[in-house]
Specification:
The complex is a heterodimer. Chain A has 23 helices and 13 strands. Chain B is elongated, with a radius of gyration of 16 Å.
């Protein structure tokens, strides 16, 4: 399976270049940056006179900047400063209003830095807009759809028009409509530019999946290696913070790897940021695997590296020794990454061996599999009684509610009361948020859509082979993420429209999205899921026949956009789909942010300031 | 919602006032029976906590009901804990869990043995 991980024929570098060039343009207005500060409240002490701010358009950041300017103007000794502010990715009226109110609007030169989709990997692009889920579904603030549309338009500018746009969910539809409208507007504003846009050569479709279509998946505990790292340590912007002692190998090593992790010898207990990406070859191999097999693989790699080291005894002649020394550098780097991942895997192991973890997992799997017992609510009650963090409780409770189409009225009242009394009455608001999101509701009908969907898309697969997976369900040890199953519906056309599932569609035959059937054959299932389903075709109007001039031999690419965020596990599952396509199709994943159940629930939990905080 | 506002008040009296406000809002609406009751309870809890702060000279306000009971046991005020429990009709199961954890925390093994 390894062949497909992270490598797509889409040249992401051109996107990287664009981002880099623009950053230079932004900074060029000032020639040479002397110092870089992180934006934070309080006065800024610097001896630089020309200040450039680069930040997200958020009101509190504006306040910080205004504060800086105020302290500068009050200081009689300070000479004149110049201020420039660049919004990433776009300016907003709200921010400008804040600056006006603070009376500093005129002092600042403003601009935009269009860094929207950030390439996290060769096949993963993210807007890294962490609050999207809450903004979109709770506050119904659709700004992020606008950002997403803008970003996709830019992609189209680089790679050509996406011939076909499919999707599921109301917000997905909104995103698609906005893109089509932007294209029409472009035609009005600048006819020439719009006509030079060709259909994309290798991207043949864009598939938009709305988070509201599948809330179940992110609530489940991720079981892939990368997913578990995220669950336990939380990966932020593809960096993970771990204990420094974990990241730092005993400094006996030559350090020839030159990797950042070896840079300093930090005190124990100190946190250290370690980058996690495809540049680390070993991590590339491990990230998408079910954690159950990671240990064995690490062991194998360790043996191999050891054997490689042993080769030095065979090096007798001078050229042989020289050859070995050349190899040494690579070996040391590999060794280093092996040490890091062994340490990480050990930590994860400690965690996954605990009773609590296994009981939660068991409850989760019973719940998604629809095995009804009354053990599950009982366990949740026990969790509340033990006062485990509220996020964990809500995660499981929401999962239970979603799968069962709501809680029975009596149960619903009971859990609400329990949570308020155990975690504080401010969570009236949290519960209300969850109810509005439809994640924690009172049962109104006994009709259970989830179980129908589960059956018709075979989301539960009983026999999973984690070592040699044959279906995406391996990522959750038996549960196939609904979101990725939907992608599979579009892309893989089994014979006679057979249901996707283990073994189906591995032939890759007739897997043409552009001319394919799209959602056909799955209408029934789709109707059961919330939100609209759509399938749009984009054409070039110059009368050119829809070409089949696609460079043959090159795999076709589907862009998969997760609106409202996706998990690492869903990324892994999507990569697995590509590996099933036998080189016929690649996937590039776009998302508004990467999330997991904890960050998702946490973003909607009501926070209260401590009554004793200020004495 | 004035409710969020009330929880943002750091001051106890201010918070009580705001809570009463939102209580009135909820009472006007028959849909929110649950919320009305919950806010009434939270007011009651705040009152008790204020009293406890006076009696023991330790911070109590802002804690949840469970944490309040927990804290009372850890400072050896088992009888007050039981009283709070009765005031709010806390389910037995939860109370015993809290008691067990609290007793373990203060290493009161005799207390654990007599549970």
């Amino acid at each position: 399976t390894g062949a497909h991980l992270g490598h797509t024929s889409l040249n992401i570098d051109s996107l990287r270049d664009l981002a880099r060039k623009e950053l230079v343009n932004v900074l060029d207005s000032d020639h040479g940056v002397e110092k870089i500060y992180h934006l934070q409240p309080g006065p800024l002490e610097t001896d630089c006179k020309n200040l450039i701010y680069i930040c997200r358009p958020q009101a509190n950041y504006m306040k910080y900047i205004a504060e800086h300017i105020h302290t500068h103007t009050k200081d009689p000794h300070a000479g004149p400063y110049t201020y420039s502010l660049f919004f990433v990715p776009r300016r907003t009226a709200l921010c400008e209003k804040v600056l006006e109110d603070e009376g500093v609007f005129g002092e600042i030169t403003k601009g935009e830095y269009h860094l929207d989709l950030i390439p996290m990997e060769d096949d993963v692009l993210s807007l890294e807009w962490d609050s999207t889920f809450k903004e979109l579904y709770l506050d119904q603030d659709t700004t992020s759809i606008y950002y997403a549309a803008k970003a996709l338009m830019r992609l189209q500018g680089i790679y050509g028009l996406f011939p076909r746009i499919l999707g599921k969910g109301d917000y997905s539809k909104a995103l698609c409509d906005m893109m089509l409208r932007m294209r029409r507007e472009m035609a009005v504003d600048d006819l020439d530019a719009s006509q030079t846009l060709q259909l994309s050569q290798n991207i043949d479709s864009l598939i938009i999946i709305d988070r509201s279509v599948d809330m179940v998946t992110p609530l489940c505990t991720q079981l892939t290696y990368e997913g578990l790292i995220d669950e336990i340590f939380h990966i932020k912007n593809s960096f993970v913070e771990v204990d420094a002692s974990l990241a730092n190998p005993a400094s006996t090593n030559t350090g020839a790897g030159g990797s950042a992790a070896a840079a300093s010898t930090a005190a124990p207990g100190k946190k250290k940021k370690v980058p996690l990406n495809g540049g680390d070859k070993l991590f590339g191999e491990l990230r998408d695997l079910n954690f159950a097999v990671v240990g064995g693989l690490l062991n194998k790699v360790a043996k191999r590296i050891n054997a490689d080291y042993e080769e030095r005894h065979n090096a007798k002649t001078v050229p042989q020794i020289r050859q070995f020394i050349v190899k040494m550098g690579g070996l040391a780097a590999e060794h280093q990454s092996l040490r890091l991942h062994t340490a990480l895997a050990e930590e994860i192991m400690n965690y996954t061996m605990t009773d609590d973890f296994n009981r939660i997992l068991e409850v989760q799997q019973n719940v998604v599999a629809g095995i009804a017992t009354n053990k599950e609510p009982e366990y949740i009650e026990e969790m509340i009684n033990k006062q485990v963090p509220i996020v964990q409780v809500l995660r499981l409770l929401c999962l239970y509610s979603l799968v069962n189409n709501g809680l029975k009225p009596k149960q619903f009242e009971f859990f609400k009361k329990e949570i308020l009394e155990a975690y504080g009455f401010e969570h009236i608001q949290t519960l209300d948020n969850l109810r509005r999101l439809g994640m924690l509701t009172k049962q109104v009908t006994t009709k259970n859509t989830y179980s129908l969907v589960r059956r018709s898309l075979s989301l539960i697969v009983d026999e999973v082979n984690e070592h040699a997976p044959n279906d995406i369900s391996y990522v959750y040890s038996g549960y196939a993420p609904l979101s990725v199953r939907l992608v599979q519906c579009v892309v893989q056309r089994g014979k006679d429209g057979a249901r996707p599932g283990p073994g189906a569609g591995s032939g890759g035959k007739g897997s043409g999205v552009a001319g394919g059937n799209g959602w056909k054959g799955f209408e029934d299932v789709l109707r059961m899921l919330p939100g609209r389903t759509f399938d749009e075709t984009q054409r070039v109007d110059d009368g050119q026949p829809r070409s089949s001039k696609r460079a043959n031999g090159q795999p076709k690419i589907s862009l998969v956009f997760f609106l409202g965020g996706c998990t690492f596990t869903e990324i892994s599952a999507t990569r697995f789909l590509a590996s099933q396509e036998g080189g016929q199709r690649d996937f590039v994943i776009c998302t508004t942010q990467i999330l997991n159940g904890n960050t998702l629930v946490d973003s909607i939990v009501q926070k209260v300031p401590d009554l004793h905080a200020s004495g | 919602l004035s409710l969020i506002e009330s929880f943002q008040q750091k001051d106890l009296t201010e918070r009580t006032k705001k809570l009463k406000n939102s209580l009135r809002l909820y009472q006007e609406d028959k849909e929110h029976l649950f919320e009305t009751k919950a806010i009434e309870e939270s007011l009651k809890l705040l009152q008790i906590q204020a009293q406890l702060e006076k009696d023991f000279n330790q911070p109590f306000t802002g804690l949840s009901l469970s944490s309040t009971v927990y804290k009372l046991i850890t400072i050896n005020q088992g009888s007050r804990a039981t009283k709070v429990r009765n005031d709010f009709q806390m389910p037995d199961k939860r109370f015993w869990w809290i008691k067990l954890r609290a007793l373990v925390e203060i290493r009161d093994w005799d207390g654990v043995a007599t549970l």
